[in-house]
Amino acid sequence: MDKREYITPKGDEGIYCIDTASWRTFKPVMDKAKCIECGLCSVYCPVNSIHKVEGKYSISLEYCKGCGICSNECPKKAIDMVMEGEE
Amino acid sequence: MCLVNEIGGVITVNYIEYLDTQEDLVSPGISACQGCAAELILRTTLKIMGRNTVLAIPPGCMAGAGCVGWNFDSGVKVPVHIPLLDNTASLLTGVKKVYEADGRDINVVAVAGDGATSDCGFQSMSAAAERGENIIYICYDNEGYMNTGFQRSGTTTMGSSTSTTPAGKEGHGKEQQKKDIPMIMAMHNAAYVATLSPSHMSDFVKKMEKAKSIKHGFVYLHILSPCPTGWRFDGKRSIEVARKAVETNFFPLFEVEDGRYTLNVVNKNPKPVTELMGMMKKFSHLSPETIGEVQKNVNRRYRLLTTLSEMKNDMEG
Amino acid sequence: MGKVIAITGNTAAAKGAALARPKVIAAYPITPQSSVVEHLAQLAADGELDTKMVQVESEHSAMSVVQGAVMAGGRAFTATSAQGLALMYEPYFRMSTLRLPMVMAIAGREMTSPETIWGGQQDTISVRDAGWIQIYVENNQEILDMVLQGYRLAENKDILIPVNICYDGFYLSHLIEGVNVPGQEEVDGFLPEYKQTHVIFDPEMPMAVDPMTPGELLMEYRKSHLEAMQRALNVLEDVDREFAAKFGRSYGGAVEEYKCGDADIILVTMGSMSGTAKEAIDIKRNEGIRVGLMKVRMMRPFPRKKIAEVLEGKRAYAVVDRNVCFGWNSGALYMEVKAAESDLESRVTSFPVIGGLGGADISLDHFLSVIDELDSCEKGGKSHECVWLMK
Question: How many whole angstroms separate alpha carbon C191 and alpha carbon A52?
């Protein structure tokens, strides 16, 4: 049946995705020396971009909007919000 | 928290590990504001609800952010539908009835803003609760019609400067108190009613799991969803704002199961609401009198909850 | 072969709905429809109807519940009148534009104000442009039969548009007539279980049902909806033929002609008044006036071509409306018939007639006088802006 005939998409594999990484002014940078692997940053990240990679929490910048919640919530102040383009 | 691993063994994990391993069923890129608590709420909700779920998201922030789809694409990996602003609970009732007729156990979930819940769609939700429909109705309360430009709703706190109750020479923000939806829903003989905050995630996950397990009646979850754009504070403080709301008793965390009240977070020395209000610009014009009114309402409500939770042993009738 | 029993129009609608085996029924009472949902509730309570009945709190929710049900793939039914239909307008429009098939029975009632509860066509007329198929019936047998035909029509894969079966409040809803109620097995043969394929709300096949849609795409959906409605004109006749073969009763298509063949003048009616009109036709025929009756059964889609065909070569026609078309000094059916008539090479004289509003009677005498006016109009007498059948 043609996709266009009725008011639901027939191709249900498609997920609508916006490049939210391009919104960033600041990006989170994690200092692993200070990090105690508590995982709170992962729990609070609204875009679900912080996960354990090889046993250590790590931030993916693929969709990160730079909101700064991870940095604000980190009990050890291990995450800094750094201007995009700087290190 | 218990998970069943691949070989069928039951292992216990804490909620942090649990959330890390659960599938995120929302599109990775949705246009919610930076620091939007509702986005966190939706993702966490679906992590717990899982794939055996159908979702209704009425017009509002989460719908506008792209979760209900665009053109031929969807915004989430479970079936989703955008009901009318005023009929979410009724629509889901019809869906649930067909699954029941077919003998299928599927999570039927609404994720609706406070506008759809407390105002427009209140009637249909109230009736669904009264009929005891087995749907999980989740309200993310960002205190206004945020998606359309921060107009006030029934759950907007007194004094808030919104686009329809702006502060000005003659105007002092919303003149009425916040409508207490969780308590109203508790009076509907619902199977389970609870308030949740994204700042208290362990409590959040427990309550969401509980909601998912209820098969005999209506479930209502009211979740505080701080809105950096509408309430005017820096997005990075969203969780901090939610935490302060619980600490000041502005947003008490409680649950009601089959008529029994439990206060989950007891504040021996609650912080004054001024600490919460000082965090956001929507209250910056408030007079001490209005702040006093809000504080009185917060105190009164907390006292009521404490009394109800102490009644636990008397509830047998 | 069915059993003949004496029942009201509402009971006939309920029995038709029950025979269709709906998975979900939404029930909300409103005069004059209430006994439809009462009868269904009694059938369910007596174990004669296996369905999920939802006692909703408003008609807006009634339409919302059935919308969710059909979205999830089940057959659904509800009924309403006037204020209820107006209240459910928001999800009503969505039901058709989401292309979700169902049958809704409407015991037609006048719209308030003035404060009223009695019969009229204003309610269904007011929502004729919300994308539903609308069929107006003449008697209780037709109510039951068209509920069954309605599901076949709505669920046809080339149509997929919900159907209104409209019958006059009190005049049919509360009138007792002999109705042949078919047996369940017979109906199962005519109306198998509904299997939806174009909208699926099921975790087994995740789909976004009705995503945000840009204008260019929306226009394609509207175009396909309009085209499907046009197809319904013919599909109605196909369904009717199948129904006749199985149950021995036929109603034809969108238009019924009664003694139109050699007529000079035509009376156009819709709904239960047609019975009285036919009596009047017979009386006037005996007096030598060559008058015929064109009964419009299907208001939406509007049988434009067929109506023009019937009026071709006629000298004059009058349309009796049990409703008003605000903004035109006539009823709505008159306006639509006139539009159809304009397709003809030569014009046909006509005038609108309005009567029977708010439950008032359209009597035999009313029809006789209308035919007299039509006759004198045709013979070169004064035409009319609008004839009102007042007391």
Answer: 56
Task: Give me C79's structure tokens.
Answer: 């009924």
- Domain of residue B239 covers 33-314
Domain that holds residue C383: 255-388
CB contact under 8 A, B95 and C60: no
For residue range C120-141, list pLDDT tens digits in order. Answer: 999 999 999 999 999 999 999 9
What fold characterizes domain A25-83? Answer: Alpha-Beta Plaits (3.30.70)
The residues spanned by each domain of chain A are 25-83
Into how many domains does chain B fold? 1
Q: A15 versus B169: which is more confidently predicted?
A: B169
Does A67 lie at the interface with B, CB-CB under 8 angstroms? yes
All residues of chain B having their beta carbon less than 8 Å from the beta carbon of residue C57 are: 123-124, 126-127, 130
The whole-angstrom distance between B35's CA and the closest CA on chain A is: 5
Token digits for C40?
A: 């269904």
Q: What is the mean pLDDT of residues C324-348?
A: 96
* In a shared domain, residues C155 and C293: no
Contact status of A9 with chain C (Cβ, < 8 Å): yes
Q: What is the pLDDT of residues B249-283, one digit of tens each?
A: 999 999 999 889 999 999 999 999 999 999 999 99
Residue B132, Ramachandran bin (φ over 0: left; ψ between -120 and 50: alpha; else beta): left
Report the CATH number at residue B159: 3.40.50.970
Least CB–CB distance from A7: residue in C97, C197, C205:
C97
- Any idea what the CATH number is for the domain that residue C174 is in? 3.40.50.970
Helices (H), B56-150: 61-62, 88-101, 114, 122-130
Q: Is residue B25 part of a domain?
A: no
Q: Which of C66, C59, C123, C64 is nearest to C91 (CA)?
A: C64
Query: pLDDT at position A17, please?
Result: 87
Q: How close does chain B come to C73, measured CA to CA in Å?
A: 7
Average per-residue pLDDT in chain C?
96
Q: Select the residue of B69, B95, B101 nearest C212 (Cβ to Cβ).
A: B69
Whether residue C21 sits in one domain with residue C165: yes
Please give the Cα distance from C359 to C357 (Å, whole number). Answer: 5
A63 touches B: beta carbon within 8 Å: yes
Q: Can you list the positions of beta strands (E) in chain C?
A: 3-8, 24-27, 52-55, 76-80, 103-108, 133-136, 163-168, 176-181, 208-209, 255-258, 265-269, 291-296, 298-300, 316-321, 349-354, 387-388
